[in-house]
Amino acid sequence: MMRLASYGQVALVVAVLAYLGAVYVMPSQVWMGFTINALAMTIVALSWNVTGGFGGMSSFGHAAMYGTGAYASAVLQVQFGVNAWLAFGAGIMAGALMGGFIGALSFRYGLKGSYFALVTLAFAEVLRICAASFNITGGGRGLQLAIEPGVAALQFNKDRVLTYTLLLAIVALVMALTAWLKYSRFGAYLVAVRENEDAARALGIDTYRVKVTAMAISGAFGGLAGAIYLQLWLFIDSAVVYGVAISVVALIGPIIGGAGTVWGPLVGTLGLHLLGEGAKTALHNAPGLNFVLYAVVLIVALRFLPQGIMGLAARIGAFGRKGGDDA
Amino acid sequence: MTHYINRRGLLKASGAMALLSGLASPSILRAQTPVVKIGVLEPLTGNLAYNGTQCAAGAKFAAEAINAAGGIKSMGGAQIELVIVDAESRPEVAAAAVDTLAEAGVCAFTGASASALGLASSQAAAKYDLAQVFSVGTAEAIVERGLHNVFRYTPGVNKITAVAMDNLKLLNDGAGNPVKTAAIIHEDGPFGTSMADLIEKTLPDQGITVVERIAHPTPHRDFNNIALRVKASKADIIIPSNYINEYTLMTRALQQQRVELMAIYSVLGGAASNIKFVRENNDLAQYVIDCNHWYDPKKEASQALAASVAAAGLDMTYDVMVAYATIQVVADALERGASDDRLKMIEALAASDYADSIMPYGPTKFVNGDNVSAAPVNLQVRGDKIEVIFPAEYATAEPVFPRPAAG
Predict the structure, then answer these.
(1) pLDDT in tens for each of the 327 residues of chain A?
(2) Residues 104-143 of chain B whose Cβ lies under 8 A from any Cβ of chain A
(3) Are A189 and A50 in contact (CB under 8 A)?
(4) For residue B209, what are the β-bridge partners?
(5) I want to staple B325 with a disulfide (CB 3.0 to 4.6 A). Which of A242, A282, B67, B357 is the partner?
(6) Nearest CA in chain B to A130
(7) Spatial contact of A244 and A151, defined as CB atoms under 8 Å apart
(8) Domain containing A11 — which CATH number?
(9) pTM for the full model?
(10) Which positions ≥6 away from B296 have C-beta within 8 Å?
(11) Is residue A17 part of a domain?
């Protein structure tokens, strides 16, 4: 399902898998801790990739779906005493509904490009203000889950290895789903919409339906990421889950890694986290300089790697298939 | 003249060096001063970078003072080594940074400037049996989760609000109850919202009607609409709870919109007790009252800290003070426990009765991790100084309330 186009991509994927495997045997908990954070963010990056990468609908407000997933799960658990597993599922559903709603409203009025990006940003901001205003969402105080380690409450924080393994499995599952999506008929419709929406419509594709469905699927992944954040840190407030930072993280990983590829969001998010952590370790006496280095790499990557890291890797030892798969 | 060394000479010299170094090394080892590591987890970057950087500076001053005074005497004069890590103003990063602290071998850590960061870090630290002594963390949820490793040295939102409201009543009663209405302006995060909820509930009991309650995000830049709403509400006083930049912009907007107020009575006002605000906005700052964390300015250690801060060219803010004090508390626990074992540190902190910190608290008494002896003080800007006006035993000036009319 996740076909690779070159020896370069094979080497890159092997390196990523080797790192993810090595975390199990690394003596330092620091690497596991930060890789858990990176994997949690990879899910929201994969979510953005469905619409922004495959469908060319670049959202600047994926925090809307992420936060809705987190809040739906938190409200159900804290305010209504709903079981954590059911609330987790509801968080995914709520993310899907929010994605579908934003998509339906935006595409009904023909918004695309930067207008669509701005509308998604506005949605996230409105939701942030709402979450900070209503009692049911804890207002500005946010919502906090009681600490109840165990399977029943879906809290595995005491066992880092288990937490890491579960996150790896979820990331693998979401990647498999996006791969299936990419190579399905629906994925082909999405690419057609991305490349030329008018031509796609002329060929009989219901572009509105395709785009709204993509937003709903993306929203489900975003909601999943938000619900995972809640179960990991047991506390959310409006700035944390609806903040612009989440929306930025959602799009930077895929853009650096390779938007529209299956491995790109993981490669980009993990790579950026590794870079940040490495810079932080190297420059531990100068807080903030790691962000400067991070920004420089980002600018260089955007300038010289329009197809992202996966695109660069695709050019190294290509297998020879003309227009080979970009993975 | 040229000196040559032959192989035999080289061997002799090497042998002599080896012998000397062999003889010398035991004495070097004996002379080595033991070191004990304390973590400092603060947001050094991001939205809360100013507070976090100030806290880190306060912790450094405390460690330097303790080391200069002979270190931890019960541990052979062990010198404190701080391990400072950046929480980046993000809860998940704060939690991940605890791994770094634990692996660095810290016996406990202080931090983390904001409740959301502290909630995440203390939860992560519980796995390591690693004590977190909160310098600032006002949300009551911090001490309500039953975590054995949590120690909040400074007061929480309930205590701060109760003291602030009691003192407001004292001031208003003393002035013949001129204040009848109030507007609350607060940041919309956990700290500002919790504070505003309590104030809104308490004020009617004092005969003060809340005519406006306005929440704003952090960061927030344009306060003109908020100032106009306050003006329209005809509130006698405003009660703000927000961070330094917003506080400064808010007071500027109030002045620009010519909002007449009897007082600005802040509760944990981000700039009200900040000498930078007083220095840069002296006219706006006059007679502003704040209920906040603050040290006892009469203590010798406080004066020494103030001198060190001034010599370093830093601003003397409550962040510096509370971070200094929490390192003192940790050092005292090390002194009494005579060990940097993490569980023993938790035991020593739980039993703490430390009374010599720079804060105006009585002997420390942690009940479920909350220091019940902690209390805020009331401050008022007068000229280019921040004076303590309540409680009387620490006061350096008499309060002026209501403030004199402008012009």
Answers:
(1) 457 878 999 999 999 999 999 999 988 888 898 899 999 999 999 999 999 999 999 999 999 999 999 999 999 999 999 999 999 999 999 999 999 999 999 999 989 889 999 999 999 999 999 998 888 998 888 899 998 888 999 998 778 899 999 999 999 999 999 999 999 999 999 999 999 999 999 999 999 999 999 999 999 999 999 999 999 999 999 989 999 989 998 999 999 999 999 999 999 999 988 888 887 777 766 777 777 877 887 788 888 888 899 999 988 888 765 544 556
(2) 116, 119-120, 123-124, 127, 139, 141
(3) no
(4) B181
(5) B357
(6) B188
(7) no
(8) 1.10.3470
(9) 0.85
(10) B302, B358, B359, B360, B394
(11) yes
User: Closest partner residue to A291 among B45, B90, B146, by Cβ?
Assistant: B45
Two tokens, residue B312: 């370093």
Q: Tell me, what's the ipTM?
A: 0.84
Tokens of A13: 């994927």
Q: Cα(A78)–Cα(A90) distance, rounded to whole angstroms?
A: 14
Q: Please name the residue of chain A whose CA is at the shortest distance from the CA of residue B192.
A: A140
* Residue A323 located in a structural domain: no
CA gap B105, B34 in Å, rounded:
14
d(CA B403, CA B222): 26
Residue type, A260: G
The CATH topology of domain B35-155+297-374 is Rossmann fold (3.40.50)
Single out the residue of B310, B294, B268 nearest to residue B57, CA to CA: B310
CB contact under 8 A, A288 and B49: yes
- Distance between CA A191 and CA B115 in Å, rounded? 45
Residue type, B263: A
A vs B: CB pairs below 8 A: 98
Classify residue A50 by its DSSP letter. Answer: I
Which CATH number is B158-292+378-394's, of 3.30.390.50, 3.40.190.10, 3.40.50.300, 3.40.50.2300? 3.40.50.2300
Find the CB nearest B188 among A140, A235, A291. Answer: A140
So where are chain B's domains? Answer: 35-155+297-374, 158-292+378-394
Domain count, chain A: 1
* Phi, psi angle pair for A200, to nearest 5°: -60, -40
CA angle, A204 then A207 then A209, to 5°: 115
Nearest 10 degrees: Cα torsion A124, A257, A51, A18: -100
User: Under a CB-based contact definition with an 8 Å cutoff, are residues A79 and A140 in contact?
Assistant: no
For residue A41, being part of any structural domain is answered with: yes
- The answer to whether the CB atoms of A37 and B96 lie below 8 A apart is yes
Residues 6+ apart with CB under 8 A from A89: none
E-strand ranges in B138-268 read 150-152, 181-187, 209-216, 237-241, 263-267
- Contacting residues of B for A36, CB less than 8 Å apart: 96
* Cα–Cα distance measured from residue A64 to residue A105, given in angstroms and rounded to the nearest whole number: 14
For B332-356, the DSSP string reads: HHHHHH----HHHHHHHHHT-----
Q: Do A235 and B120 touch (CB under 8 A)?
A: yes
Closest CA to A169 of A2, A43, A258: A43
In a domain, A270, yes or no: yes
Among B93, B96, B84, which Cα is nearest to B52's?
B84
Q: Which domain holds residue A188?
A: 7-314
* H runs (alpha helix) in B203-261: 224-233, 244-256
Question: How far is it, in rounded angstroms, from Cα B344 to Cα A43?
Answer: 40
